[in-house]
Design goal:
six-stranded antiparallel β-sheet, alpha+beta, 15 strands
Length: about 240
């Protein structure tokens, strides 16, 4: 997605996913998270078989101050099913801090995720409601990115990868739910793009299409953000 599209998806998230205090809605804060390329690659050390397809799962949460929490975990598709890569579950840090990801337990992940689903409201101006993890159309609590075709492609298109940071921010787009007998609804997704440290400051590498670039520089992932992710594992049957 281009910088303009990125902004529109961010605006859609802010318009439709909110905190509520009494009758007052407020924005979910601290949504922009990062992980460095080096820290991300360190999470792959316990992969069972490098030939196995790999995905990155991002789980949404809230902390006790109702600030947004993003948990990242690598998932390996083995002969017996999709399993977590041991030691790869971490809490991403805020864009402003550029810190080291914090190892997290499945129990803590559930606490954050439960707080998210129990606290955040979906707002459409007509039928505002709490998020739900039940029914025919449960609200997603996580999003998936394919490792090779999405995560690594984004990094490599914005080479050199050394010194790069993966930027993850909340987005939303409208999904067609007519097949379930429900009206269309916005879903929580994540945008994925690259930032680099320039002049001591972490700076997004995100721009609208520049038609003056030579053909070799027009890779769709170059200076762009990835899509909003997948609501289920990329190779889910």
């Amino acid at each position: 997605m281009t910088k303009t599209q990125y902004g529109s998806y961010r605006d859609a998230f802010k318009a439709h996913f909110k905190l509520k205090d009494g009758t007052t809605y407020s924005e979910i804060e601290m949504t922009k998270k990062v992980i460095s390329y080096n820290d991300l690659m360190a999470l792959t050390k316990n992969i069972k078989d490098p030939a196995d397809p790999l995905s990155m799962r991002l789980t949404y949460g809230l902390d006790t101050s109702n600030h947004f929490v993003l948990l990242l975990e690598l998932m390996e598709e083995t002969a017996t099913g999709i399993v977590p890569v041991p030691g790869s579950l971490v809490r991403c840090t805020d864009f402003s801090s550029r810190g080291t990801p914090v190892p997290t337990s499945p129990a803590q992940q559930k606490t954050y995720s439960d707080a998210y689903i129990n606290t955040v409201w979906y707002v459409d101006g007509a039928n505002d409601r709490h998020l739900t993890n039940g029914g025919n159309t449960p609200d997603p609590t996580s999003i998936w990115f394919d490792w090779e075709t999405e995560v690594m492609r984004e990094l490599e298109a914005n080479a050199p990868v050394e010194g790069s940071w993966l930027v993850l921010d909340c987005m939303s787009a409208q999904y067609d739910l007519s097949g379930f007998g429900y009206p269309d609804a916005y879903r929580h997704g994540m945008g994925l793009n690259i930032a680099k440290v320039e002049g001591g400051v972490l700076t997004d590498h995100l721009d609208d299409i520049d038609h003056s670039l030579p053909p070799a520089d027009k890779d769709p992932a170059n200076y762009k953000a990835m899509d909003l992710g997948n609501l289920h594992p990329p190779r889910w049957p």
